[in-house]
Design a protein that fits this description.
372 residues; alpha/beta; seven-stranded mixed β-sheet; 15 helices; 45% helix
Length: 372
């Protein structure tokens, strides 16, 4: 009964926490480590029992929010000062890998590798659970400037590098369907993401794709992409956690590295939903590094529609990602932690009603595709 269930959960929690002393989910995880199933259980258990839960449930002092008047318990808003990029993505990618078989509202089984927002309309069928993310990647590398460049190459294979590839789902789509003769190097700072990329995408039947980890990320601390100068046709950045606040020192280092590896007439293909003012900063900063804007398309309205169309699937995703963790069923702690988990996942996915979704609706954020 209730007492036995609670006792079992407490015992399991004690064992997990003793074997795997957990760091803070929001700021204490390393991108250089692929967390195994038991580690994830320990981390999630500690997270649910930690003071972070009541703090996120708005039992914290008033804080200044950006882009609107938001509260975490209502719209999932979490400010950049509240978390470390490497840490939050480390746990997200571990959770994706720990839940390999999701089911869509259409009954389609799939793995959550296209964890991108994307936009509508999508050329992929409605039954495809990741059609919007596919539309974003395919659209980014088939911008008019990219197609014109490819036409001039003729039969010569494209050399493509992606910075911040995640699980490599977009790279997989491009090398299998969009530019199937391309040589594609997919780079990411997350070991878990690259492990997934190598396991399910960079397989023997897809020889054009290579996935590599760059510890701590390209540009961070002078890190270079493992690519020669002036050797790449396209550099792709799609929906990565880059320039989400400003064009700062890190972004300038990344852009300089992109300039280094691009051929003289090569293209930087950039797509993301970030603050509109940051796109305006990019218009000033990128030309200083020798870039010239040759294509610019605003997909914000389509991005909002995509999130609306995708709402039922994301609702199912949240439950399916959180289901494997027994702590979510614990009295008192479980429902509160489940709510926090839902809000975090929903906001990062720009789910309708969340802060990041509303920022696109108001125009504070813009989803752009650019070619430089």
């Amino acid at each position: 009964g209730f007492v036995k269930t609670l006792g079992a959960l407490v015992a399991l929690s004690a064992v997990l926490l003793a074997v795997f002393p957990p760091p803070d989910v929001l700021s204490g995880l390393s991108s250089n480590h692929d967390h195994g199933p038991l580690e994830i259980q320990a981390i999630m258990t500690a997270f649910c029992l930690s003071p972070v839960i009541p703090l996120l449930l708005n039992e914290r002092p008033e804080i200044e929010t950006t882009g609107g008047d938001f509260k975490f318990e209502e719209d999932g808003d979490i400010e950049n000062d509240d978390y470390a990029q490497a840490s939050i993505y480390a746990i997200l990618y571990a959770m994706y890998k720990n839940t390999p078989n999701l089911i869509s509202p259409h009954g389609v089984k799939y793995q959550f590798t296209f964890n991108t927002w994307g936009f509508a309309p999508s050329p992929y069928p409605e039954e495809d659970p990741q059609r919007h993310g596919k539309a974003a990647y395919a659209g980014l590398v088939t911008q008019p400037a990219a197609l014109e460049y490819k036409k001039k190459l003729g039969d010569t294979p494209l050399e493509i590098v992606e910075i911040g590839c995640g699980t490599g789902a977009g790279a997989n789509l491009i090398t299998r369907e969009v530019h199937p003769t391309a040589y594609y190097l997919a780079l990411d700072m997350q070991q878990a993401a690259i492990n997934t990329c190598n396991t399910i995408h960079a397989t023997p039947d897809n020889p054009g794709l290579t996935c590599k980890v760059v510890p701590n990320g390209v540009g961070n601390g002078g890190n270079q992409a493992p690519v020669a100068d002036s050797s790449v046709d396209f550099v792709v950045i799609s929906e990565t956690h880059i320039a989400d606040i400003e064009i700062g020192d890190l972004e300038k280092e990344i852009f300089a590295e992109i300039r280094r590896i691009l051929k003289p007439n090569g293209l930087f293909l950039w797509g993301n939903a970030i603050p509109t003012r940051v796109w305006e900063q990019a218009d000033v900063e990128l030309p200083k590094l020798g870039f010239e804007l040759v294509n610019n398309k605003n997909h914000t309205k389509g991005a909002v529609i995509a999130r609306d169309e995708d709402a039922a699937r994301v609702e199912m995703v949240m439950d399916q990602l959180l289901e494997p963790y027994p702590i979510m069923k614990a009295p008192y702690f479980g429902p509160r932690c489940h709510k926090v988990g839902e809000r975090l996942i929903a906001n990062f996915y720009r789910h309708p009603g969340t802060a990041l979704y509303l920022k696109m609706v108001t125009g504070y954020d813009s989803y752009m595709h650019q070619a430089w």
